Each structure stands twice: as C-alpha cells, then as structure tokens.
Amino acid sequence: MEFHSLPGRIVYGDGTTELACVDFPQVEQGIVDINHTFVDESLRGQGMAGQLMQRCADQLRKDGLRAKTGCSYAEKWFEKHPEYSDVLAEK
Predict the structure, then answer these.
(1) Phi, psi at residue 35, to the nearest 5°?
(2) pLDDT digit string, tens, across residues 54-84
(3) Cα separation of 31 and 68, whole Å?
(4) Which helix (H) or strand (E) holds 9?
(5) Distances, alpha carbon 22 to alpha carbons 64, 66, in Å
(6) What PANTHER family does the entry give (predicted)?
(7) Are 31 and 66 in contact, with CB atoms under 8 Å apart?
(8) Is residue 27 helix, strand or coil?
(9) C-alpha torsion angle, residues 74, 79, 82, 88 (rounded to 10)
C-alpha cells in the first residue's frame, strides 16, 4: 500500500483498492476546496486522515495553491496546524 498523488486527489491504496483519500478539486484560479476525506474502517484511529491532510497541504504549498475547507475534518486539521496557515485561502 502506498500514497498516490493525482490531480485534485491523494489516495492511499494498492492502485486498485482505495483505503483512504482526500479530494481537493480546483474551484477558482489558484484555489482548491478540500471537500472530502475518507479513511476505511480498517485504518481508522491510526492517524491516516492526518497523513493525508499533511500530504495535501504540502502538495498545495509546493504547487503554489491555496485551499478552502469544505470538509469539517480539513477545517479542524488546519486549526490544529497553524504552521500551514499560509496554504489557506482567505474566507
């Protein structure tokens, strides 16, 4: 199992089966909406959602994109990680 970065999406799985993902489609020029996170029951409680969010935030920072947080988990994650506040789009 490994992480796969796709346009607007990061997936954890084996290429066929997705066990976890975060979706962040572009909603306007230079801005994405982190609107969905999913972690399979078999991985819950192991920090997988946090790993997805960190990879997502790192990817957005690298690509020079900013994020809105349509997903409640993403909103809470950014509140707990102020070191990534530069990735957030102004509300």
Answers:
(1) -110, 0
(2) 999 999 999 999 999 999 999 999 999 999 9
(3) 7
(4) strand 9-13
(5) 18, 15
(6) PROTEIN NATD1
(7) yes
(8) strand
(9) 50
